[in-house]
Structure formats: C-alpha cells, structure tokens
C-alpha cells in the first residue's frame, strides 16, 4: 500500500509495481460453474485495454458519466478501474438517459438503449466470450477490447478530487473512494496478502468495497462470488479452504 495513492487507478499501479504475479481477482459464477483467476498483471492488462477503448474509440473524457449496468463480475471490476484511469464517473446502475455512455450486460440491453451516447454490451459468457449475434446498436466488448493497447496513458491527468463513482445515492471522488476503501479494509481486518471472499452484489458501496476496492487498498485479493446462494454449506467450506480465504463478506 502506497500512502500517496489517491485514486483506484493509483492503487492498481502500486499493486502492479509491488507484485504483478499475485492473484487479485478470483471470480466464481455458481449458476454456470465458471471460475476465472486474474493476477495483478492480467487484471491491469484488461484495465489498460478497456481504458484505451474508453478514451480512444469511445471518446470519453474526464468528468463524463458512464452508466454501468453490470452485476458483480470480474469484467465489471475491470470497467470500474478503467473509468478511474480515464477520469470517467462510473455510475453503477445509473440512469442511461442521463449518462454520456453506457456499458451493459445482456439482461439490461433494453434499459441501456435510453442512452444517446456510445453503448457497449458485454455477453458475460465464460472466458469473456462474444455475443453469438451482436446486439443492434451496441459495440460488443469482447470484439473491441482485445485489440486495444496493453499500456494506457490518459490524455489529461485524472483529478483525485473530481467525481469518480456513484452508487446507491452516494457519490465519491477518487480520493474519497480510496480513503473509504482503506477504512473498510481495516474494519474487515484485511492486511497484505488477505484473501476476502465476497458474495455481495455490486449495487451498493459495501458490495463494491468488499468485492474490489478494500482488498485492493489492503494489498490483498478478492474471491468474488456471483450467485453464491446456489452453493451449499459444504461447497462454501471447500471453497474457503481451496482458495485459502482469510476473511468473508457474505
């Protein structure tokens, strides 16, 4: 943890410099059986590609508002850090009609059509797969992102005191987000190397913090579980053991 970090993107850069090979996000979907593990380096690579897509192809600028209509998922975590990298406000489950651009999953396509700006859709298929048929009026993230550059540099410096995240009626600057993530990490008892299993959704601050920001701020990692309610007690106990979980937030 670097005390000078003031945005989530800063936290990721520090994690990358410290230990790029360690796990950062391990994702389970207990409705499909999917498991994906991303090291700091792999996660940062996805963030760089997504930030390049956001800044380059989608022409997003600092202060623009992005309605993020995605569930708790590893690709959602990538988009949250990409927004921070560019200086775009990630409005989680926000109103697409009031946003400059929208990023949506397959279940919210109709809602997302209210956005008059750029629209990106994610199939949320295992291994980041494409839509079998791209939805009309949307760019398919799985088609557009892989060809983007592996390194990212913002056209303009990101202001830590500018708005960064809106969720559940709460709006935070980058600096406020980092401060709250550090406070939450302390409350959860996270220390460097901690493995936090989170079954919380991403539509509240508590869910976003446990499912990404607090472990990142603590130099730890997250085991992010979607549809955790479909896993029985024995299955959860086995996961805690196999993933070397040190803390839980369910």
Mean pLDDT: 97
Strand content: 15-25%
Q: What is the gyration radius calculated from CA atoms?
A: 17 Å
Give the biggest sheet: 7 strands, mixed
- Placed side by side, the strands forming the largest sheet appear as 7-6-5-3-4-8-9
What gap, in angstroms, lies between the N and C termini? 25 Å
Helix/strand order, N-terminal first: HEEHEHEEHEEHEEHEHEHE
- What is the global morphology? globular
Helical amount? 25-40%
Number of strands: 12
Briefly note the structural class of the backbone. alpha/beta
Q: What this model shows, in words?
A:
This protein has 250 residues and is an alpha/beta fold. 35% of the residues lie in helices and 22% in strands. It has eight helices and twelve strands. The strands form two sheets. Strands 7-6-5-3-4-8-9 form a seven-stranded mixed sheet. The longest helix is centred in the N-terminal third of the chain and has 18 residues, at 40-57. It starts with 7 loop residues before the first helix and ends with a strand. The model has no long low-confidence stretch (mean pLDDT 97).
